[in-house]
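Database export, one record per block. Field names are fixed; values are copied verbatim from the stored entry.
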Amino acid sequence: MPGTRWVVAAQQTGLPAEGIFPAYPKGIAVLLVCHDGGVYAIANRCAHTACPLEAGARDGFIITCCCHDWSFDVRTGEMTEAPELRIPVFALKMEGDDVLVELPEDGI
């Protein structure tokens, strides 16, 4: 089974209080979503045609892709209309000012 690694994705002081922040730790497109005092990390690409979710609209915990209106819950990665479809979510932790995400060793 492939391993994982914790990598710095951003600095807490650089994150918005509410909103999104695209990051590219180790070249992986990750979208940090700040909402209701929490921070969530999801893949920054739609499950449909890999459109960047950072260009989409966010309403609370739901982000909607700008290409074809597919919506995903940032907490679980599940598509709202079809939960069996999902995008990757990443574990996240804070160390000092660093925001770290847990990425698979072999990418996503």
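Remark 1: The mean pLDDT is 94.
Remark 2: The radius of gyration is 13 Å.
End of record.
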